[in-house]
Amino acid sequence: MPAGIATLLGPELRYGLVNEAMQELLGSPTPTGEPLAKHPGRLAADLLEVMQQVYSSGRPYVAKAYAVPFPGSEKGTPTKRYFDLALEPLTDDHNEPQGLLLFAVDVTGQEEARQRAHELSLETRRLDARLRVLTETAPQITFSVDAQGQYEYVSPQWYYFTGQPPKADLNAIWPLLIHPDDRLRVLYQADAAREAGIGWSFEYRMRRHDGQYRWMLSRALPELHAPNKPVFWHGAVTEVHDQRELAEALRRGETELRFLADSIPQLIWTATAEGFIDYYNQHSADYTGLSGQELGPTGWVALLDPTEQAAAARRWVQCVASGEEYEGLYRMRRHDGQYRWHIIRARQLADSRGPRWFGACTDVDDQHRLRQVLQTQYDELARTNRDLDTFVYTASHDLKQPLFNLRGLFDELRRTATFQDPEQEVLLEMVDDALRQLDRTLQELAATVQDQRELTAPTEELNLQSVVEEVLLGLRTQVQEAQAELELDLTAAPTLLYGRANLRSVLHNLLSNALKFAHPDRPAHIRVTSSLSATGNAQLLVQDNGLGMELRHGPSPAFQLFERQNPQVAGAGVGLYLVQRILDSGGGHLEVTSTVGQGTTFVVHWFE
């Protein structure tokens, strides 16, 4: 028999009959008449104890899948074999215990299969729990549908999204939540996919818990059973409302941009990262008389004047390689064969789709020719202006000598000649004043020409404190004569980016005027402070307590050349005109407030 059989006799359970299969199980000699405890073989002590209890109680017992260690290979670990062991008491005719019948059936294959099945069951439950956690925590609605379209499972996200109770009838409610305009299409496509045994992927609008319809993407694949017949469809529903609206906005934006590009009277084009043009607007075709296909990937280069094509192409290749902006002024051929000046600009845009180039060719032929004409006229005017300056400067310089001669003759006349006129001294004093006035006028003319030549002086960062002190050092005689008190506070805006000669001229004229027009009844008090305007630009305040003046044109008067505010004080009326000219040339202006008899305040706005 393939099963092991042994009889164990007496209370000592001595070996009786032992067949070959049992001998293999025990793995050791089983001498007849010897007790089992002395030769247990591979049987463990707990089994021997159970045998004694079965013998004493007379109740049979079956040990299922009892593990018995068997030696493995020479270096291998022991292996286990499993046996169903039946312990049956042996009794005599008077039902007295005589021994035990040991019956062993090898069930190793069945037990190992059962253990593997158990392990697979545990692994399946673990994977099922993991899959459920993944599906229920993912931001998607997962579902399973059978071949008849009945929902077998849906993840909790569906209830969160729709606001339906957990006991809701999915098959009845789900179709009602689909937008009426999409419902028939969705039901038809799902039925057609199940009939064909294939998966599906389509978009539709589903009503959310707040009543708003949101675009959803539904995808599912079939679960195939033998013979390749789908039984279930498993899938997911993902909200794509924002992405769809963004895509629609992008599509509308691209359409509007293309319409805008076609409406612009410029040659608009785009190019790939390699510099090959892949789009031309409608004006490009209208201007060149060529279609986008005829223009090709390097169309604008071929339209340039042949003498400029090589340089323009080299520059374009360099910009494509480095990513630098492209800009150049070239002559481009129109559909009638005429070459017109164009500014060609291109910039690179890098985004998630990779780098691309956007360019434009702007016709500036009329402006270019007008600029050439204006430049010619400007050069002519500049030359004329220089000639006038030279003439005024030369004339003022050359007139000094006759003035000196007149002065000498007048002094000699006063010394030697006598007049029988009671107002002789008054007349002589009037002539003397006229000569002095002529002398000052000639000096002011020369200074004005010199200052105007310096209006284009280069700018540099200047320290206001040092320049003011330098100007005051040159005016120290006037300061002493006027007994002037000076108050300087230039900490708020201590520096100024300006031309040194222009700054000195502005400060000199304002400070010298404050000293010249000091009130005779009180010492002069002059305050010079710097500050920042509301827009953050530097400004300067020069305030005095002098004679003041009448302003006929408000706080921003236009001072004219040789216009004098106080005729009783000697002067040529050039200083404020020159200050105004210097400020206007630098983009600034002069603001004035004054009260006759109390003083004047000048606010110099350097750049606004």
From TrEMBL:
SUPFAM superfamilies: ATPase domain of HSP90 chaperone/DNA topoisomerase II/histidine kinase, Homodimeric domain of signal transducing histidine kinase, PYP-like sensor domain (PAS domain). Its EC number is 2.7.13.3. Residues 200-252 form the PAC domain. Residues 127-197, 253-295 form the PAS domain. SMART domains: HATPase_c, HisKA, PAC, PAS. Keywords: Coiled coil, Kinase, Phosphoprotein, Transferase. CDD domains: HisKA, PAS. The keyword Transferase applies. It is an enzyme of class 2 (transferase). One of its GO terms (molecular function) is phosphorelay sensor kinase activity. Residues 428-455 form a coiled coil. Residues 394-608 form the Histidine kinase domain. It catalyses: ATP + protein L-histidine = ADP + protein N-phospho-L-histidine. This is histidine kinase. It comes from Hymenobacter taeanensis.
